[in-house]
Structure formats: structure tokens, C-alpha cells
Specification:
A hairpin with a 2-residue loop joins strand 4 and strand 5. The two termini are about 20 Å apart. Strands 1, 2, 6, 7 and 8 form a five-stranded antiparallel beta sheet that branches. Strands 3-5-4 form a three-stranded antiparallel beta sheet. Helices cover about 25% and strands about 40% of the residues. The mean pLDDT is about 95. The protein is α+β, with helices and mostly antiparallel strands. The protein is globular. It has one domain: Archease, Possible Chaperone, Chain: A, domain 1.
Amino acid sequence: MQTPNIEYLDHPADVKFRVHGRTIEEAFEYAAHAMFGVMIDPDTAATIEPVRTIEIDLSADDCKDLLYDFLSELLYLFEVEEIVFGRFDVEQIEQVGGGYHLRAHVSGEPIDRGRHRFEVGVKAVTFHDMRIERTGEGYVVQVLVDT
């Protein structure tokens, strides 16, 4: 998925992307779209039907940990449950006590290797060069995934 909110950056070995969102929730949604944009052919991404919706409820010590956990959970569901996602609705990210909490619903369909075409395999989300910055226009999130 290539949008004005998603920018893929040069990296010699892996894939790095930067996303822009008006809210932290929107930035996390674009980060999920960007990660799946690495893995899935754009024509395939456009055909994904929201036949299965999964609720994601995560807590972490800080926003970087929360982003890492969110993207890693999506990667786990893709690899183990064999679900390809096309819709990401991060409903709320809030500070709770000394940490952060995320509630989201993600929708997609079971992987169909005859219909879905895949681009690059993402092995893992990394903390390397991960950034979450608040700007005058919202939030900028940067992620490097191991391919």
C-alpha cells in the first residue's frame, strides 16, 4: 500500500518505512499497512476481504514497546494463523498507570496461496532505528523490519 502517509526508505539489507498520522492511533494503522505492503503484492492487498476480524488488546511499558508488540502480533497471526490483513482499526492508545494500552480490531481473510501473491518475507519487527515522534501535524513513526 503506497499512500502519501507511507514512505519506504532505503536500507542495504532490510526494509525501513516511515509513516505519518494525525493521531498516534492512525500512525500505528499506517505502520501496519506499511508492513503488510512489504509482504503482499499491491494487487493482492486490494482484494483482501474482511471476512475475519480479530481484537487485539496489548499493554506495554512505552509506545515503542507497544508498536513493536502490535506489529509482531500481526506478523504472528499472518505466519501461524495464516491470515492476511487488509484493514487495521486502532481504536485507542492510552496511557494507563506507568505504561500504555492499545485496543484494535484487524480484519482480513485466510491465506489462499492460489490467489494471494506475496512479495518479501518479513522475519521480524526490530527496535533498530525505531522512532515515534510527535510533530505539529501529528505523529511520525519509523520502523525497520528484518527481511
